[in-house]
């Protein structure tokens, strides 16, 4: 999300190279990230044979070209944004294309017709939704099923600080046969513990267009959750970020985690979380302290 904005081309190239060397394949982006600069930079880095070795996830329906957040999930806008994304990414298809968010302004039938066209025209291999509630996800899946197209995935915010998805979205996705990709599994960086002694000047909560979102994860019960993660990390001898990611990765219904590393050092820490298995007692303690 920060490529072309807070992450410069050099750091992006280094991070992508290390990610691929480690066996990583799946890259998540969106039409609205950095006003298109994110996709353009990714297209430059994948130009050549690298594209065929990657699974590209794209999203449409949110833009900031006017300076403020605009949601438009109409068929025309979605397909226009899809075409723009393909041009920027220098590819003829996305492996997974998602509606970026729900909107009450457009009939769901119209929104899903854009996903249907994307598949039948070859512009997307698979489709799904992002930031949908439980009933919304099932309704979307039912409409696509009528067209013999599966809704295979949903993206949701999910972490030890945001477990609301367990109430409806996780069981709904299971019913619909869709895998869930958890975004912000580190709670905007809060679960790394870097805010325990204040807000660093260069942190997400201090600067940038998403500072308000990150700052809202601070305080309240989050202090107790962060302390519990830190205690578990000390006991296991690993960074707090790896504990938080391991917890989310082991949750039922979660297919994968979407992480955003700003540099190579962060990436190495996040990738190593794949080797961390939380003992049952620690997982239960984290469940208890973070229960919604």
Automatic annotation (TrEMBL):
Q: Which domain of life is it from?
A: Bacteria
**Do you know which PROSITE patterns this protein is assigned to?**
ALDOKETO_REDUCTASE_2 (PS00062)
Q: Which residues cross the membrane?
A: none
Q: Which GO terms describe its molecular function?
A: oxidoreductase activity
Q: Which residues form the NADP-dependent oxidoreductase domain?
A: 5-289
Quote the InterPro entries the UniProt record gives. Answer: AKR, AKR_Detox_Biosynth, Aldo/ket_reductase_CS, NAD(P)_OxRdtase_dom_sf, NADP_OxRdtase_dom
Q: Which GO terms describe its cellular component?
A: cytosol
Tell me the PANTHER family matching this sequence. NADH-SPECIFIC METHYLGLYOXAL REDUCTASE-RELATED, OXIDOREDUCTASE
Write down what this protein is called.
Answer: Aldo/keto reductase
What is the source species? Flexivirga aerilata
**What phylogenetic lineage does the species belong to?**
Bacteria, Bacillati, Actinomycetota, Actinomycetes, Micrococcales
């Amino acid at each position: 999300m920060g490529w072309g904005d807070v992450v410069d081309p050099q750091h992006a190239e280094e991070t992508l190279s290390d990610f691929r060397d480690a066996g990583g394949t799946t890259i998540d982006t969106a039409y609205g990230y950095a006003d298109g600069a994110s996709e353009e930079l990714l297209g430059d880095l994948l130009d050549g044979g690298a594209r065929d070795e990657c699974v590209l996830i794209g999203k449409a329906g949110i833009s900031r070209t006017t300076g403020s957040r605009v949601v438009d999930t109409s068929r025309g806008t979605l397909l226009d944004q899809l075409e723009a994304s393909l041009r920027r990414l220098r590819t003829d298809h996305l492996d997974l294309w998602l509606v970026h968010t729900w909107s009450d302004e457009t009939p769901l039938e119209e929104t899903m017709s854009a996903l249907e066209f994307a598949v039948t025209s070859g512009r997307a291999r698979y489709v799904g939704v992002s930031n949908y509630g439980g009933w919304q996800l099932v309704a979307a899946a039912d409409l696509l099923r009528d067209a013999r197209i599966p809704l295979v995935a949903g993206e949701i915010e999910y972490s030890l600080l945001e477990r609301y998805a367990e109430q409806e979205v996780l069981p709904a996705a299971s019913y619909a046969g869709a895998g869930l990709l958890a975004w912000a599994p580190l709670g905007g960086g809060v679960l790394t513990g870097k805010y325990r002694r204040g807000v660093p000047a260069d942190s997400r909560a201090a600067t940038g267009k998403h500072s308000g979102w990150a700052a809202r994860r601070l305080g309240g019960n989050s202090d107790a959750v962060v302390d519990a993660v830190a205690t578990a990390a000390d006991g296991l001898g690993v960074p707090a970020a790896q504990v938080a990611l391991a917890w989310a990765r082991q949750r039922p219904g979660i297919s994968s985690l979407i992480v955003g590393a700003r540099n190579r050092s962060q990436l190495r820490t996040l990738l190593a979380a794949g080797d961390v298995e939380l003992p049952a007692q620690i997982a239960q303690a984290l469940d208890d302290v973070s229960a919604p």
